[in-house]
Amino acid sequence: MNLFENIRMALSSIAANKMRALLTMLGIIIGISAVITITTLGSTLRSTMVRALNSMGGNSFYLYLTEKDYDEYNEDSYYLTLEDEISVDMLKELSETYPGSFKIGAMENLSDATAINSENQYITIGVTGIMDGGLDVFGIKLSAGRTITMRDCIEKKHSAVVSDIFVRQYFKNGEEPIGQPVEVTLADGTPLEFTIVGVYKYSELKLGSFPAGTKEIDKRTPVYLPYMTVADISSKYDTGFFSLQVFYDLALDNKQAESELKTFFEDKYKENRMWEVEVYNIQDEVEIYDMIINIITIVFSVIAAISLIVGGV
């Protein structure tokens, strides 16, 4: 019996048993479609989750102080002093110990300020101090120039990163903003001068939307200065941190970066009797979610495969 004879017999069998053939085809089609759909949804959900976590700082760690041996009956429990906090000097030393490996997502809001452009229009801005990873906290991207560096912070420079909206508000003649000095007056009347070193594109999704109908000249956007500069102006230079976000270079292995951070802060807090720094790795959460999604995908794929078996029988 040759191939063509087999095909002819198969077609004759299908024609003689139309309902049985239809149900068989339907079962197989549904089964295959269900398996493909479930695996595709699992893959899409996984990639969406990874993108969402990365947008919140997937290449970062959250540091926070925690008690070494918590005793609920100890009255001094949870009593945190300034000496216990993560200090600015520690963060400077971290950057010096691992140059280029870590950026600090710390910030300090100073106050509102006003500037006057060449057309005598008043512009309101928010002055915020950041360290070298401050823009990464919001996922802000530069359109020109550079960001604030740790050197800017250490040397308390008056360099600033402004929004593209501020550039249009302040420079009415289309001047190149990079390198231009700007004079503003803080809410308490203190004058402040800074030099623009970078321009970022304002995102309402990341930084907040403006009320409908707001004129461009009335839009208030943040101006970012070095953290130590702002902290010095606001007399909070020695203020430490209970928690903060640290970003690591993508060229580093996640576990290596975590190990370096843990080693550094374990050394800094080895003499501290009550407090230590906990390093929270967001990638650990990604791995847990990924495992859950894989299990769910497998379970539903097995269920969907039952229709394939039924169709085959």
Q: If you had to describe this structure to a student in words, what would you say it looks like?
A:
- The mean pLDDT is 84.
- Helix 2 (18-55) packs antiparallel against helix 10 (282-312).
- This protein is of the alpha+beta class.
- Strands 3, 4, 5, 6, 7, 8 and 9 form a seven-stranded mixed beta sheet that branches. A four-stranded antiparallel beta sheet has the order 2-10-1-11.
- The chain contains ten helices and eleven strands.
Secondary structure elements and pairings:
Layout: H1 3-16, H2 18-55, E1 60-67, H3 88-97, E2 102-104, E3 107-116, E4 122-130, H4 134-138, E5 142-145, H5 150-154, E6 159-163, H6 164-170, E7 181-186, E8 191-200, H7 204-207, E9 221-226, H8 227-233, E10 243-248, H9 254-268, E11 275-281, H10 282-312
Parallel strand pairs: 4-9, 6-8
Antiparallel strand pairs: 1-10, 1-11, 2-10, 3-4, 3-7, 5-8, 7-8
